[in-house]
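ZP: hey, is the adenosine-5'-diphosphate complex queued? I don't see it on the tracker
AM: it wasn't, my bad. submitting now with these inputs:
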Amino acid sequence: MAHLRFKALDLANNRPKIQVEENGKISEFFAADVFGIDQMEKLLASDVFKKVKIAIDDGQKIDSETANAVASAAKLWAISKGATHYTHWFQPLNGATAEKHDTFFDAQSGIERFKGTTLVQQEPDASSFPNGGIRSTFEARGYTAWDPSSPMFIYGVTLCIPTVFVSYTGEALDNKAPLLKAVEVIDIAATKVCQLFDKKITRVRASLGCEQEYFVIDKALYSSRPDLVMAGRTLFGHNPARGQQLDDHYFGSIPPRIYNFMKDFEIEALKLGIPVSTRHNEVAPSQYEVAPLFEDINIATDHNLLLMDVMSKVAERHRLKVLFHEKPFAKLNGSGKHNNWSLITNTGVNLFQPSSSARENLLFLIFLITTVKAVHEYADLLRASIASAGNDHRLGANEAPPAIMSVFLGSQLTNVLDELEKNGNVKVEKGDNMYMKLGIDKIPPIILDNTDRNRTSPFAFTGNKFEFRAVGSTDNPGTPMAVLNLIVAEQLTQFYNAVEKDINKGTDKRLAIVNVLRKYIKESNAIRFEGDGYSEEWLKEAKKRGLSNIKDTPRAIDAYLTEKAKSIFIKHGVLNETEIEARNEIRWENYIKKIQIESRVMGDLALNHIVPTAIAYQNKLIKNANGLNGLGIKNTQVLKMIDSMSDYIETIQREVENMTEERKRINKIVDNRKKALAYCDDVKIKYFDKIRYAVDKLELIVDNEDWPLVKYREMLF
Ligand code: ADP
Ligand code: MG
């Protein structure tokens, strides 16, 4: 077995350098492969373009004549750029993106065709995508429908059309449809609140900037590790003598081979209109981050998914493998996808940007405080929105921060909120400078640059946006973003109603606003935390505050099924009851499959790779001990090694057998929720660490020449 390891290492260490083409100025090729607004304006008749523009801006339906015109222009444009096929590009609930390519060429007529109806709607074979029981077997149909708000693009030789995916009976079967609805809901709720101050505000858009963390290792090393290939993470591997304790990787210089890869995938991404802007090393060895500039949330989500795909494909060219898993290597930093989120009005105001004008600051405070309140009210739902088997290793596991939701605001804003709450009894009379009296007249306008940054908070205010950091690196950001926008929209609606009621009673508008804000501050104090989120004290403190700390996915996602959660999804039309329940079925199924695969791979590797290697080495030691004995020499260390190897080998054999029996029992459970919980408690928690511990110990004993798996230090340094 070990020969495979050395062959992989040999390949990895002797890669020829790959040349990356210099593409010149970015402005000359940015979005070259996108059929965006500019292209449409150029290629469509002006009345058609106007209609499309309105449809994009206001989410209105496109009539068939307009669709035909767009299809025809898109076809000519795509063919002129070398495209031969088109596909409806969508985001099914298995977490990936899907596409089915059809050719433009129509053999019957002998020409390339692309009709409006084909652009607007398609029927992919829906039966192979997860649906959580929504479609009964006799009705396997589902269709994809064009989302004009996200531009078409050419990927390879295919024109990709971003679409939503729904069942024949109208239920959403993807991640995009609920996001689009949630974004609409927050638009309406936020606009209403803004109009308390400014009637010119008629639209509020949610923006998202995703920071994507990832690991990169050589393709041969990846291929030589069945655990990485099958489960996306290493199930065994002793941590190297040097991990990340030197902190020298972060912001260190990027190795030339990786730098080349980054440059290459960035060019591809930029051509697709993905505004990648920063690249740097991350905390762990071989860990990196890429971040595009923030965009409209729907587009940013599409771009994030596309970017991950581009990275994987370009890595192939460089004989590299990108690991998007949340925790590919134990004892090293995991990977997340920080979701930077803000709300921006049609008048260009970022509602999370503090300003020097007292009046605008009141609007800022409304949005800040309602968001804090929403996170407090729906912390469990927010936790559920980022739950996955992979992310469990980043949240709540042994080496990870707790899975407690909390909000970091920074000392300046904390003071402002505390002051506002404390001044609750201050009487404001006619003619008073209310802002001054309440202490909200002097919010420092530039909080942006304050160094007061807390990297341990799962949900932090960072100057002019909130940063939801607990999102997992493989996640479709649309899932947590749909929840976040929905809960804030609900809170804004409640805020507006409370203020309106007070105003109707004759209270001054500003005072009515402040009254509700004070109430919210008081009610959501428990969720605010400025300290070290990774500390022991926080665990205790959070418990005292009554905040939940839900460690495992099967428990976390129960939050979707509470009456409270269901009612807001249904009330705002984001998901109906069937859809909510179907989604949890899929989440349970995914979880079960993930743990099942990990458990099987673990058993296979342990019994068929590790144990035979260990026994062979142990036999060498026994021979050695016997030989020494014949010479009358007694080496107690060798005997000790033989003895402890025996223990580890026996532990592995016994625990793998027990784990397999446990799986057999659990596989008979019909109820997916119960089954997922059993996989969590009786397979993962009960066996994984135990088996791993014994294997990793053997790694330290067995002759390096014989060890079958590429070691951590070999993969990472
Ligand atoms: P960090 O210091 O956490 O690495 P950066 O300043 O690099 O953060 O920004 C991270 C992401 O936040 C980028 O994608 C950036 O475009 C995005 N971002 C900046 N401002 C906003 C905003 N107002 N709304 C949403 N995202 C934003
Ligand atoms: Mg960040």
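AM: back. The pocket of adenosine-5'-diphosphate (ligand 1) is lined by residues 207, 209, 211, 278, 291-294, 338, 340-342, 350, 464-465 (CB under 6 Å).
ZP: great, adding it to the tracker
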